[in-house]
Amino acid sequence: MKNLEQERIFNYTREETLKNHPNAKCYAIKFLAIDNSEIYADLFIPKGDCKGIFLEFPDYKVAPKDYLNLSRYSIHNYAVLSLHIRGQVGKSKNNQPWSIYAPFLETNYYNYVYQDALDVLQIVKKEFGELPIYTLCFGQGAGISVVVSAISNEIAEQFIANIDICDLENIYKENKDVGFYAPIREYARYNVDKEAEMLNDLNKIDTINYAPLIKSKIHYGMSYLNPQTPLASQNKFLSLIKNKEIIHYRKFEKEVLQEHFFDEYVLEKLADKK
């Protein structure tokens, strides 16, 4: 796998969908990734003036937003491009190898996901020129957002919550490698002589390494009940972010937060923008 490319040269198609949508022009975006995986995204553009565009990267194995939820951006005169993460829930394909240790080990999976996200950023820049770009993402998507923002410096503000793919070495060493992180534990059990190599591979995809490079403001939603990424790891990430606003949800789980309350916070912020 080559280093991540900010301005990879590739072609994409834009096919109109939902032609009778009352307040947005809707398109299916398709392109071939750097490994020839077929990548798909939804693009909704308000029919009136457009203030900016949001990028959405879904959480791990969570379906991309449906048409009703994507339509809400046009109410505030924002466009949205929602990437279907390769090989998860959605229409994008994945040509990368998969095993019981995926998506973390014995694969370059997340490096390719990061490249896909940088590619859709290039599409957005071609489609919208100098309009400001924002992100709204949870969990896995929050990690992808951080990587894209750090590498490109093209994101005006990030609305993210409960970041994952974060602080992987400490998650392993503190025995927090369960649930989403369980493949790391399984790999270590069956490869006891490869710990150093394993940690080196995990470090290559760890989103915490990108935190010091972030220049955009981060609005960060933080659930306190049953966190997937330990709160200590999330706080370590946040300590590296200079410009941030943290919204504490002390009595909510991650799943409840991303379904309702953080979205409401984001929509309120959009309503305040002129």
Q: What's the total number of strands? A: 9
Query: In angstroms, what is the radius of gyration?
Result: 18 Å
Residue share in β-strands: 15-25%
Total DSSP helices: 8
Strand order of the largest sheet: 1-2-3-5-4-6-7-8-9
- Strand/helix succession: EEEEHEHEHEHHHEHEH
Mean pLDDT: 94
Unreliable parts: none
Please bin the fraction of helical residues.
Answer: 25-40%
Largest sheet descriptor: 9 strands, mixed
Structural class: alpha/beta
What oligomeric state do these chains adopt?
Answer: single chain
Describe the structure.
A nine-stranded mixed beta sheet has the order 1-2-3-5-4-6-7-8-9, sandwiched between helices. The model has no long low-confidence stretch (mean pLDDT 94). The N and C termini lie far apart (42 Å). The protein has helices at residues 67-75, 109-128, 140-152, 168-173, 182-190, 195-205, 231-239, 254-272; strands at residues 12-17, 24-32, 38-46, 52-56, 78-83, 133-138, 157-161, 217-225, 244-253. It is α/β, with parallel strands linked by helices and 274 residues long. It contains eight helices and nine strands. Helix 2 packs across helix 3. Helix 1 links the parallel strand 4 (52-56) and strand 5. 41% of the residues are buried.
